[in-house]
Amino acid sequence: MTDVPLFTHIRYVMTTTVPSMFITLIIFAVAGFSQEVAATDQITLYSSILRETFHITPWVLLVPLITGIMIAKKLPSLVTLFLSAALAGVFAVIFQPDVLQEISGLSLANVQATFKGLMISLYGSTTIETGNKVLNELVSTSGMRGMLNTIWLIICAMCFGGAMTTSGMLGSIISVFIRFMKRTTSMVASTVLSGLFLNITTADQYISIILTGSMFKDIYQGKGYEKHLLGRTIEDGVTVTSPLIPWNTCGMTQATVLGVATFTYLPYAFFNLISPLMSILMAFLGYKIYRTNEKDQNLPTG
Description:
Layout: H1 5-34, H2 40-53, H3 62-72, H4 77-95, H5 97-104, H6 111-123, H7 133-139, H8 143-146, H9 148-166, H10 169-178, H11 184-202, H12 205-222, H13 227-239, H14 249-258, H15 262-265, H16 270-285
C-alpha cells in the first residue's frame, strides 16, 4: 500500500522537526532547572482567584473542540469564524453571566446587561477585576477592534509583497542565491535563505511559501530530487521563521495576541531558530535525501 501524500510529507518533515523539537526541549529543561520557580502558594492563590472570578468547567472546552472539527472538515473560513464566535458567546452567557454583566458596566443584573457585556467582549476592550493586578492584565482583552491596527498592517504588507513580486524585483534578487547552488547543501541553504529573505521583504508567510516553491520547484525537479525535499525545506526555512520577523503578518499577529514584542520573544524561540539550521545539516549529512532516479544523477549529495 502506498502512503497518502499528506502522511508522506509529514514523515519527511519529521526528519528535521523531531530533532529540532528534541533540542528545544533540552534547552528549556536545562533553563527551567536553572531558574527559580514560582512559589506553590502563589500558584494556589492565582488558581483560587480564577475559580472565584470565572466558572471553570470542562464544558467550555467544547468550543475549541468544535472549532477544530470545523477546520478539519474544511468549512469556509468565514463560516468557521462566525460559528466559533457565536458558540463562544452562547457558552459565555451560560457559564459566565456574572462576568458579562460586569463588563457591561450596568448596575442591574438583567438580560440587557448580559447582552451588552457579550457585545462589548466581542468587539471592544474589556477589563475584569479579579483583585490581582497580574491576573487583571492576563484576562484583559481588546476584542476585534484591538486587532484593526494589525489587520491594516497585514493589508499593507501584502500589497507591498504583491507589488514586489509582480514587478519582478524579487525574482532578480533571488537569482543571486540560485547562482551558488552547486551541491545539495548549497541548494538547501539557498532555499532556506531565499525563504527567509522573502519573509523579510514580502512581509507575508503565504506569499513567501508560494514564491519559494515556484522558484525552486523546477530546480529540484531538474536535479532529480523528490518534491518532498523542497516541501520540507520550505517548512523549515519559511513557515517557522515568519513569526520572527516583526513586520511579517505572522510576527505582527503573535506580538499583538501575546502582547510581547517580536524581538523580546525571538531569543527564546529556539525551535524556530534551530529548524532552518537542522534542514541544512541534514542536507550536509545526506540523511533522508532521495532522488527520483539515482542512476541518472551524478550530483554530489554532501
